[in-house]
Design goal:
The protein is mainly β. The chain has one domain. The chain contains 4 helices and 15 strands. Strands 3, 4, 5, 6, 7, 8, 9 and 10 form an 8-stranded antiparallel sheet that branches. It has a 7-stranded antiparallel sheet with strand order 2-1-15-14-13-12-11, with no helix packed on it. This is DOMON domain-containing protein.
């Protein structure tokens, strides 16, 4: 029985993250899209799955749009808006946050009615509606942030952590994550139980955070709304941040006391963070079982 458990554990973990001795991928192998720290809600990766689970089309591919793709929203919650290409494959994601919750925002936020919207793509936006899009079995071939009101205005996000050198991205902390699992790993080795009846909570990590152009004496009004997540020196996620209190189960509202080493390093943490009354964040994960990511691996 113990031999079976050991093999099962190895298989479970190997599916979640690569072992330290395995080679690191040279290109993205993002296989799952999920959001929100602690919940890790899986999102549909094609149009048909989205429609089947209640997502509705709110905007179609149109040259007049400031973004690329067919946009789908679930039950009117703009905290997560999915963009699919002309063939129905996931191509990007948007966050629409109410102006009433966050006040006036600047680019890369785009004003859209009563909301501000920020957009990320998993492939070249020029190929999303008209093609041809690079062929890959994964979510996409790159990550780009739209920085203006045209799809040609984008910032490419490095896949390899080493390529952040010389940029304005600043290394931050590694924040612990909580998830649920029925894996024998946690029951047998932590609790010495061979039978698994109920999921248990356990701690993992979201990833190594990187923040754009931060410094201790900066003004928090200049805080860039995107952060990056790296594990084993490869991009495995990103997230959004805004000052204010927006309401959605897709959002996170970390208290000031949780914004220490988990999010920032003490040498570069903005001092103004301590004076913020509220903060709205959202983690976006690109890999399977993000709760099993460990920054030191």
């Amino acid at each position: 029985m113990k031999s079976f458990i050991f093999v099962f554990v190895l298989g479970t973990c190997a599916q979640a993250w690569r072992w330290p001795w395995e080679s690191k991928p040279e290109a993205p192998e993002w296989s799952q899209l999920s959001v929100t720290w602690g919940k890790f809600d899986k999102l549909p990766q094609d149009k048909d799955a989205a429609i089947k689970t209640g997502w509705t089309l709110t905007a179609s591919c149109d040259a007049a749009n400031y973004f690329a793709g067919n946009r789908y929203v679930l039950k009117g919650d703009t905290a997560v808006m999915l963009l699919f290409d002309s063939k129905g494959k996931i191509a990007g994601i948007q966050n629409g946050i109410p102006k009433s919750a966050v006040g006036d925002l600047r680019a890369p936020w785009i004003r859209e009615g009563d909301n501000y919207v920020i957009t990320a793509y998993f492939t070249d936006p020029e190929t999303i509606c008209s093609g041809p899009r690079p062929v890959t079995p994964y979510l996409g071939d790159q990550l780009l942030l739209q920085t203006g009101n045209k799809i040609s205005n984008t910032m490419s996000i490095p896949f390899k952590q080493e390529d952040l050198a010389g940029t304005k991205w600043v290394r931050g902390g590694c924040f612990p994550s909580m998830g649920k699992s029925k894996s024998y790993l946690f029951y047998y080795f932590l609790y010495n139980q061979e039978e698994v009846h109920q999921p248990i909570n356990f701690w993992g990590f979201s990833g190594r955070h990187y923040w754009y152009n931060i410094s201790p004496d900066m003004d928090c009004r200049d805080f860039y709304p995107m952060f990056l997540l790296y594990n084993r020196d490869r991009l495995t996620g990103f997230g959004w941040v805004a000052i204010g209190n927006a309401d959605s189960p897709r959002y996170e509202h970390p208290p000031a006391k949780r914004l220490g080493l988990g999010f920032f390093l003490s040498a570069t943490k903005p001092k103004c963070i301590a004076n913020l009354k509220s903060l709205t964040t959202q983690h976006v994960y690109l890999d399977k079982r993000p709760y099993l990511n460990f920054c030191f691996i």
